[in-house]
Amino acid sequence: xxxxxxxxxxxxxxxxxxxxxxxxxxxxxxxxxxxxxxxxxxxxxxxxxxxxxxxxxxxxxxxxxxxxx
Length: 69
Description:
It is a single chain. Helix 1 (2-16) runs antiparallel to helix 2 and helix 2 (23-40) packs antiparallel against helix 3. This protein has helices spanning 2-16, 23-40, 45-61. It has three helices and no strands. The chain is mainly alpha-helical. The protein starts with a helix and ends in an 8-residue tail after the last helix. It is elongated.
């Protein structure tokens, strides 16, 4: 269940990260949204850190794969 929630969160983060003008801004938005999502679901700090890292990567790379152009 947790992996499903993280996967859905990553898809949402990718769409929301399109608001940024560059990779740094999109990465920050992605990390923030994913980290908050992990905290809201009551996961431990390790999961929050992993979710934040994945969200940052998704946000920074979304334009490279053509999702948030």
